Amino acid sequence: MSELLNFNYPPEPATERVTLFADVILPLPLPKLYTYRIPFEMNDDVLVGVRVIVQFGAKKVLSCIVADIHENAPPDYQAKYILDVLDDTPIVTAPQLRLFKWIADYYMCTLGEVINAALPSALKLSSESRIQLHPHYNPEEDELILAPQEEKIIFALQNNPALTFTEIATLLQGKSYHKYIKSLIQKEAIIIFEQISDKFAPKVVKKIRLTEHFVQEEGMLEELFNQLAPQPKQLDVLLSYLQKVPVHQDINLNYKGIEKSALTTNSHLSASSINTLVKKGVLEQFDQIVSRFPLDNEPKQLPMVLSEYQLKAKDEILGLFKEKDTVLLHGITGSGKTEVYIDLIKHALEGGGQILYLLPEIALTAQIVTRLIKVFGDKLGVYHSKFSDNERAEVWQGILAGRFQVVVGVRSAVFLPFHDLSLVIIDEEHEPSYKQYDPAPRYNARETALMMAHLQSAKTLLGSATPSIETYYNCQTNRWGLVNMHQRFGEAQLPETELVNIREEQLRKTMHSHFSGKLLTAMEERLQRNEQVILFQNRRGYAPFISCDECSWIPKCKNCAVSLSYHKYNNELRCHYCGYHEQMPHDCPACGATTLKSMGFGTEKVEDELKLLLPNAEVQRMDLDTTKKKNSYQQIIADFENGKTNVLVGTQMVTKGLDFENVSLVGILNADTIINFPDFRAHERAYQLFVQVSGRAGRKSKAGSVVIQTRDPQQPIFRKVIHNDYLGLYEHEIEERLRFSYPPFVRMIRITVKHADERTAENAAIVLAKDLTDRLGKQQVLGPEVPYIFRIRNMFLQEIHIKLPRENMNLKSAKGQIAQTIFNLKLMPDFKATRVVTDVDPA
Q1: 3-class SS at 530?
Q2: Which has the closest alpha carbon to 638: 391, 361, 369, 300?
Q3: What is the pTM of this model?
């Protein structure tokens, strides 16, 4: 690999040959591709989809993806040469490139932003600025006037091929080195270049085995025992090895050997004895590349037999796939959708294709993967953000190599290099967590997966107990197929749901902090029967805010227009938007009073109070604060599944697809905040959350109960939840959306204008809205308006909402007009520093 920025290729000979150029996708938010010249000797190496090294600008070196190869030189600039090729074969497939282009076009972002989101960090390149002597500079002959510090640098470079900036700082003992580097560059004594290194490295383990002749030649092993008899520690190593690798039964076992650490872990054997045997030639040590996913080599088929109605659903799905590409499996909670998915995956594997199984949350993968490993073994790959960079890169490489045919993943799995996709399963398709908010691309994994399946002629199965209104509308209009499963698996029945009026309980003084008497009594009864409880509170932290009892002072975030949430565990106030935090004050900074009170409650407070109210119960919390570590999800779920935890308190994480057979009670602590949210999807989301979390109860033979605490039990949404009336919800919502022009009848685009100055943000939004109205029409543009949270990270916000009719509207043209309007705004001197964020299909 060439490291020099100013690498000059020798002049081409006079013989006629083809000059090729490559259009590359740089990992930067650039509006177009850049063209580079391919050196003749790389003509056969540069392929569409490989990574190449290029110089961008004066000093920057980047890795990028080749998007196209042609013979057309760029008309408006001289193409630089590609410096090096990183891959022997493409790491990005042709179907992927088509999908990335669609994502960039549909979600109004750049291909560079898509590539940045798509590639695991380990497949990107790291660079560090270095200096080396200028190729034309000879310190022995060229007479340059150098400062003492410059002489030090030159002397060091005569003895080292290159130095990093950090090494130069050490050399000059902390003195400012930038001016000396700049001076040496101007004197053409040194040049700056980038040291490029590929981050991905396969996992390697050290293994040992007996040297071959001890196993192959008769009597050698017995002779070895006699030789080692005076050395008991070394003899113990040999005996331990033969116990773990019984070569006397099968000499071929010796070839695989054993991990070196397996002999020393949990044993009295010393590493020095092993090393001595290696030096003597008794054992040989070797490195072996292993998977970071130690799945079973052979699938262990579960004796899974589908019930009659599950078989019926599966046959209906396969029948609909003959005429439709997309089918919705509408199955109530606990109906056994996962078993149907597994059977369909088996069916797809028989055809030799690849399968993507999408889940909305990392928490779900822990349970699902355990089940799938037992069925699909090492054909299964897992992909989510809690994995390390190298683990994600290994899944990427494993799909390219054909090692993983089935992949379970969260939303980022749609970027993986599938090239022979036959089936996509999108479980809990209604979930808003499939939507990426920041940074760009602000894609929806559900819609992206549908397009990916379309581009590869694959079938898509969406599954949900509470489908999104848009999805169900597509089924009702016969665009997609629909299969229903309205019966729970086995003997399980839907839980009984009871509403508790908090106002009445407060008047009767039967509330225990935030727990009604009915809920607390129900929990005590379940715990006495050794059954488990799930409590849902849709807010993390200890309290949403604190307030002074004397003057009503409330601490606010310094960067955002929100109050700070109180987290008792760290005794700090924290902003959930920008991360700003400060210590909990002892007294009020406004009036000096010490009567500071927490207002409202979050999951941390629920956990804290339960430990006082139910002292014999093991309580655990699952929210963003307790699941930051890599394996924390798995540990919390395993503890609950194994009965170590009696009560699980959580945010939306506990509502999604988890399957615990011993849960007989679910409590929803504060239902009103979810219903009364200012959003056209508020009632749909509330219904989905209540039904989904209710579905965690009574999933086996035990009867389940749900207690919903509310101050307004007359809300119509509760009747629909109690009677599991999804159709009633759908009919009401679809009528409302038709009347007020909301999806699925229009496409929505939200434009957010951001600026550090409030007046500038407002003025920019007014100019932008007027231009959009002139281009798209008054009916299509709403706003600008100040959002509910009007300042985030020291930026003032203004929002414009655009509604584009699905009928008689050229979407591509409309998006082009929007992009042009934003471009024109940025050209205005007053608004150059304004940020404009476009979100297509905001969740």
Answers
A1: coil
A2: 369
A3: 0.80
The CA distance from 414 to 408, in Å, is 10
Q: Yes or no: is domain 308-468 CATH 3.40.190.10?
A: no
Quote the CA–CA distance of 443 and 588 in Å, as a whole number: 44
64 is in an annotated binding site: no
CA-CA distances (angstroms) from residue 751 to 108, 141, 765? 11, 63, 9
Exposed e or buried b per residue across 547-565, where buried means at least 16 C-beta atoms within 10 angstroms of its C-beta: bbeeeebebebebbbbbbb
Place of tokens 């979407």: 811
In the predicted structure, residue 491 carries a pLDDT above the cut 70 = no
The answer to whether 418 and 93 are in contact (CB under 8 A) is: yes
Half-sphere exposure of 130 (CA within 13 A, CB side): 20
What digits encode the pLDDT tens for the residues 463-478? 999 999 999 999 999 9
Mean pLDDT is lowest, of 152-161, 170-179, 358-367, 676-685, for: 170-179
> Helices (DSSP H) in 160-198: which residue ranges?
165-171, 178-186
Q: Which of 251-265, 342-356, 786-800 has the lowest mean pLDDT?
A: 251-265
**Cβ 546 vs Cβ 594: under 8 Å:** no
308-468 with 496-540+602-735: one CATH topology?
A: yes
Residue type, 687: Y
Q: What is the mean pLDDT of residues 796-811?
A: 92
The candidate with the shortest Cα–Cα distance to 802, out of 108, 114, 104, is 108
What would the pLDDT profile of 711-765 be if each residue is shown by its tens digit? 999 999 999 999 989 999 999 999 999 999 999 999 999 999 999 999 999 999 9
Question: What homologous superfamily is domain 20-127 in, according to CATH?
Answer: PriA, 3(prime) DNA-binding domain (3.40.1440.60)
pLDDT for position 699 = 63
Where do the domains of the chain lie? 20-127, 128-198, 212-281, 308-468, 496-540+602-735, 543-600, 746-840
Check: CB of residue 425 under 8 Å from CB of residue 355.
yes
Instruction: Name 567's bridge partners.
Output: 572
Fold category of 746-840 in CATH:
Alpha-Beta Plaits (3.30.70)
588 belongs to an annotated ligand binding site: yes
- Rounded to a whole number of angstroms, the CA Rg of the chain reads 32
CA distance linking residue 51 with residue 63, whole number of Å:
6
Element (H, E) at 37: strand 34-38
SS3 593: coil
CA–CA separation, 204 and 574 (whole Å): 41
Q: How far is CA 538 from CA 370, 374, 650, 671, 735, in A?
A: 27, 34, 8, 9, 28
The reply, when asked if residue 475 is annotated as ligand binding, is: no
Q: Show Cβ contacts of residue 741 under 8 Å, excluding neighbours closer than 6 positions.
A: 803, 805
Q: Coil, strand or helix: which one is 560?
A: coil
Which 3-state string (H, E, C) describes 258-316?
A: EEHHHHHCCCCCCHHHHHHHHHHCCEEEEEEEECCCCCCCCCCCCCCCCCHHHHHHHHH
Tell me, which fold does domain 128-198 have in CATH?
Arc Repressor Mutant, subunit A (1.10.10)
Percent of the chain with pLDDT over 70: 91
Please check whether residue 334 is in contact with residue 488, taking contact to mean a CB–CB distance below 8 angstroms.
yes
Pairing of strands 795-805, 190-198: unpaired
Structure tokens belonging to residue 380: 């299964």
* Of 843, 824, 842, residue with least CA distance to 834: 824
Pairing of strands 84-85, 459-464: unpaired
- pLDDT class for 36, splitting at 50, 70, 90? very high
Q: How does DSSP classify residue 690?
A: H
Which CATH superfamily does the domain covering 496-540+602-735 fall into? Answer: P-loop containing nucleotide triphosphate hydrolases (3.40.50.300)
